[in-house]
Amino acid sequence: MKISERIFKKIILLCIGTILIAFSCVFFQLFTMRNNLVKKLQTDGEKFHSSAVELLKKNGNENASEIVSNYTAIIDNKLNTIAEDLFVLKTYLEDLYLKSKPHVSKYDNNQVFLMKDVDMNDVKQEFDFIKSIRDLIDNMSPDINTSNIIYVSDSGMLLSPKDVDRSSTASIDRRTRDWYVGAVKKGKINWTACYNDINTGEKMVTCSVPIYKSDGTVGGVASKDITINDICSSVMKTNSEFIDYSFLTDNTGDFIVGSREGMILSDVLNEEVKDKLLNEMQNNEGGFISDDNIMAGFSSVKATGWKICVILNYEKILKPAQYIGESIKSTNVLIQEEIESKIQMTNIIVVILLSIIILLVFYITKKITDSIVNPIKLLNEGASIIGKGNLDHKIEINTNDELDDLGKSFNKMGLDLKKYMDDFVNVAADKERIKAELNVATVIQESMLPCVFPAFPNRPDFDIYAAMQPAKEVGGDFYDFFIINDSTLVFVIADVSGKGVPAALFMVIAKTLIKDHAIAGKTPSQVLEVVNNRLCESNGAEMFLTAFMGMIDLRTGKLTYANAGHNPPLIYRKNKEFEWMSTKPGFVLAGFSNMKYKDEEIVLDKGDKIYLYTDGVTEALNVNAELYSANRLKIALNNATGSEETPKEILINIAKSISDFVGEAEQSDDITMMLLEIKDRKI
């Protein structure tokens, strides 16, 4: 072989070897980068998808808890309204039994219905002095086509606003019914278990309350039926696409009603998930459950112990996260396809370059490698930055090819994700704004009540202190005290039905009216009568309030007071103990117009104290649903009161006693207290 041939062969072999080595290096580098990029994209995509899922689950749990809390509040409000109506009737009847004096009524003996074996001659005397409750029942039950309040006496009488079939009434002794027996046994408001009405077939419950005579024996039971549909219609018919199903169970866990007619819980959940949900509801007052099979929230109805549960549409709640996962997967597939395409193109270019001299091969190979590797590096780095949460990062490739399109797709995905996250931030901002507005309302309400103590530093003859702790940001309780004519101290404490902003607005109106008419020189009973009529004139919300008002002549010690359905105060005589004041509670304010109230009088001496409070004190609940109670209040007052304690120190001790009793339980009602002490002056 000629030397030229050998040189040519060696040069050819050297060129081919060089090109093969270069190709192998390029291929290995591309393969390694491809695998690293795919792995990085998959890992970061999974992390981002998991974060989105957890965020959506958390938001879904919060929404579920908020929805069921609103639902239970609606149901509790309806049930409490019924219970309050019955309590009004109870107060009226027990007052009749106490006085044993008949009221004028338009009803005669033909409009009372008797149980079997009961003769009118035996019950006529009782009927004569309680028959006026028919007037009250008629006013409280205006629609005769719906279930109304009835009263069954222990002697066998039935008084109802509806016409009742006499033969049916005589054949059925309603004193043996569950609602009658249960109320007598319980001694207070009683709710029956859910049952099917024998006439209509509808599911119903009955609320009943025992009525006691002056000697402490049972006079009878007042009751009212209500259908489950009336209770739950507004919370079971929801058009929200995110709520899949809602249902109500009784206090034993048995199913009552669901949001879809004809559908029970087994039609919505499999047995394992259903049993898990019911077990959580049975063992807890409220909460939520969330896993890969269900997202639901539940809460308890305080009046009856029922549980209401809302099951969210799991797929719709997590739909944004599913969209994110699918976007990441499709983007990864496109990137892998582009990388494979570029690798194949590189192989072809390298084969063609076998005929080019070695220096040109190196030059071209480097250019080709740079043109392929650099965009991939940018995509890799950009994917890593976006995966770490920097959604504002822009990937700039500027190759005007498919990789450039991929970079733009990454940028668009980052903007879409940022917009989605911003929407979450806006929702949170709205919640904070509402919270700030309620805080302003709280400050305004606090400023309307006397809050500077000592209230009258230049008056050594008495001391007074008061405090209010609302259950929500604003409350319906209020107190007030002021001096007129330089010698008369006026004080009042009141409790508006309900809580929150509506109760606070009603409180402002009532407080203003009471003070205006007290300053005009009226007695407590006259003030309450005028204020009651004014409140009844435009009470579209059908709210009411209880109030206790007193006027004390600081020269003589004579205290004139009147009660509008409020808790009786406790009085402390010097060197003795707190005892309940004798007071005759009148009807609540804003219930019925033209109601009459009675002034009562006592004389206070030096060292005497009067403690006033709202039912948020005695009805404070601990985690075991136990009441603080009037007896516990009386004991705490006597323990906190001595010869040196000021009204402020006594109320602080009572507040601590309530707080220690309630513990971790949520405050259920506004807590308001006031204490007046007669001091240095000799009366």
- How far the N terminus sits from the C terminus, by CA atoms, comes to 144 Å
Taking pLDDT < 50 over at least 5 consecutive residues as the criterion, the unreliable ranges are none
Radius of gyration: 39 Å
Beta fraction of the residues? Answer: 15-25%
How many DSSP helices? 16
Model description:
Helices cover 49% and strands 18% of the residues. By secondary structure, it is of the alpha+beta class. The strands form 4 sheets. Strands 1, 2, 3, 4, 5, 6 and 7 form a 7-stranded antiparallel beta sheet that branches. The chain has a 5-stranded antiparallel beta sheet with strand order 9-8-12-11-10, sandwiched between helices. Strands 13-22-21-18-19 form a 5-stranded antiparallel beta sheet. α12 packs across α13 and α15 crosses α16. The N and C termini lie far apart (144 Å). The model has no long low-confidence stretch (mean pLDDT 81).
